[in-house]
UniProtKB/TrEMBL annotation:
May be involved in fusion of retrograde transport vesicles derived from an endocytic compartment with the Golgi complex. Belongs to the SFT2 family. One of its GO terms (biological process) is protein transport. This is Vesicle transport protein. Keywords: Membrane, Protein transport, Transmembrane, Transmembrane helix, Transport. InterPro entries: Vesicle_transpt_Got1/SFT2, Vesicle_transpt_SFT2.
Length: 133
């Protein structure tokens, strides 16, 4: 009935809802998306490289390696959020064909930190970092 009233009164287009206004206000242009992708990816690579260098630091090297390497991977994965958008990326990550790989990668992110912080096992930390990759 409301649609009929709008058409008869000359208001063909629907009024934008609050959610659509928020989506339009927060959407980024293509150039901004590419810049965000490059910045996030560069930070991710830098953190991963820094983590690899910090592995050889005595005492706290293993913990620093695990933290920086994991943050680097999270930043690198987050960089694609700029190109695809968060919802589209999450939908693709959890598609049936990618579900196992996504679960293994997320589990390895957590296990890397657990093996460095609580178990203090260098071998396990390195194994989980390789599996993250």
């Amino acid at each position: 009935m409301d649609k009929l009233k709008r058409v008869l009164s000359g208001q063909d287009a629907e009024e934008p809802s609050g959610l659509s206004e928020v989506i339009e206000a927060t959407s980024l242009g293509w150039g901004t998306r590419v810049k965000g992708f490059i910045a996030c990816f560069a930070i991710g690579c830098l953190c991963s490289l820094l983590g690899s260098c910090l592995l050889w630091v005595p005492r706290k090297g293993l913990t620093l390696f695990a933290v920086f390497y994991t943050l680097g991977n999270i930043a690198s994965i987050g960089s694609t959020l700029f190109l695809m958008g968060p919802m589209k990326q999450l939908k693709r990550m959890f598609e049936p064909t990618r579900l196992i790989a996504t679960i293994v990668m997320l589990l390895c992110l957590i296990l890397t930190l657990c093996s460095a912080f609580w178990w203090h096992k260098k071998g396990l930390t390195l194994l989980f970092c390789i599996l993250q990759f």
